[in-house]
Structure formats: structure tokens, C-alpha cells
């Protein structure tokens, strides 16, 4: 990835590794073009719920001809510029809560609340969608960040 000019990433089926790799590319300052095959509907709800990629923009396609036409209109693409943010001295720790609290989350938040560390949180239960730019602004303005990487609970069938 480090030596690529642009990365075309298939976000049709989302997983943690893919999202990590997209973040890694953005952190390296590489242009990223997410593509999504709309003929595959298995992860449509998860994609809509995530919302992070909405502001980046992704290329929908249904077949190879549509993909080629779409890529030719999008390329060349510029990297997303890093936000210019000031360090948040009031609350230098940014905590991103997961879709459900685990025992580890409860303990971490308990320790943080009792400590002198000032922190702010993003709670998916309060604000279900977070844009990529806002997430990047919050993390870039922080001394440290803590995140829960758990998938949302599957509905009972």
C-alpha cells in the first residue's frame, strides 16, 4: 500500500480488516476510492448503519462495464486532506464506545471517571452515525484515543 498511487477498495462486504486498511491508507495520505457492488445486498444494512464512508464517497456499480466507466470518471483522485485541528487540552483522551457495553468497557470507564484523566466520548447509542472527517478530527485533536472494536449484535432469528 505504501507505494501505491491510489487504492481502489471494495467495500461491498464490510469487515474490521478492510476498515483498518482504509484508515491506514488515509493515515498515509493515500487517495482511496471505495467501490460497492449494489447487486450484492447482504451487507446493505451494515453499510448504511456504519455511515463513515458516506462523506468519503463511494462508487456504486452493478457490473464490470459500470465499474470501469465509474473509475474513469473518478480518476485521478486526490487524497483526503488531514484536518487542521488544535490539540484538545481540556479533554485530551477520546473514548469511542462500542455498540454495546462489555465488562471491559464498564471497568475502563469506571477507572477513567475516578482518575484525573479528562476525556470525552463518542457514544453510538446517542449519535448512531459519525462521519469519517469528524472521527479523524476528534482523534487528531487527542493525545490518545480508546476504541471498542466489537461487531454490532446480530438480531435473534
Which sheet architecture does the biggest sheet show? 3 strands, parallel
Our estimate of the beta-strand percent is 15-25%
- Low-pLDDT runs of 5+ residues are none
Across the major sheet, the strand order is: 1-2-3
- Average of per-residue pLDDT values: 84
- What share of the residues lie within helices? 25-40%
Query: What is the subunit arrangement here?
Result: single chain
Outline: globular
What is the N-to-C order of secondary-structure elements (H for helix, E for strand)?
EHEHEHEHEHE
List the helices and strands and how they pair.
Layout: E1 7-10, H1 16-27, E2 32-37, H2 44-50, E3 59-61, H3 64-74, E4 93-97, H4 103-114, E5 119-123, H5 132-140, E6 144-147
Would you give an account of this structure?
It is globular, with a radius of gyration of 18 Å. It has about 160 residues and is α/β, with parallel strands linked by helices. Strand 1, helix 1 (about 15-25) and strand 2 (about 30-35) form a beta-alpha-beta unit. The chain has helices at about 15-25, 45-50, 65-75, 105-115, 130-140, and strands at about 5-10, 30-35, 60, 95, 120-125, 145. It has five helices and six strands, in the order βαβαβαβαβαβ. The longest helix is centred in the first third of the chain and has 12 residues, at about 15-25. It has two domains: about 5-75, no CATH class; about 95-145, no CATH class.
Amino acid at each position: 500500500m505504501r507505494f501505491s498511487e491510489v487504492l481502489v477498495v471494495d467495500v461491498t462486504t464490510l469487515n474490521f480488516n478492510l476498515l483498518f486498511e482504509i484508515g491506514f491508507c488515509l493515515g498515509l495520505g493515500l487517495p482511496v476510492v471505495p467501490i460497492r457492488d449494489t447487486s450484492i445486498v447482504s451487507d446493505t444494512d451494515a453499510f448504511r448503519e456504519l455511515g463513515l464512508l458516506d462523506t468519503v464517497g463511494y462508487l456504486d456499480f452493478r457490473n464490470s462495464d459500470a465499474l470501469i466507466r465509474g473509475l474513469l470518471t473518478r480518476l485521478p483522485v486526490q487524497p483526503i486532506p488531514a484536518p487542521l485541528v488544535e490539540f484538545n487540552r481540556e479533554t485530551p483522551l477520546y473514548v469511542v464506545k462500542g455498540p454495546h457495553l462489555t465488562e471491559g468497557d464498564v471497568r475502563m470507564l469506571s477507572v477513567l471517571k475516578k482518575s484525573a484523566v479528562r476525556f470525552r466520548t463518542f457514544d453510538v447509542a446517542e449519535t448512531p452515525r459519525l462521519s469519517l472527517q469528524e472521527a479523524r478530527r476528534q482523534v487528531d485533536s487527542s493525545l490518545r484515543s480508546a476504541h471498542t472494536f466489537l461487531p454490532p449484535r446480530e438480531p435473534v432469528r
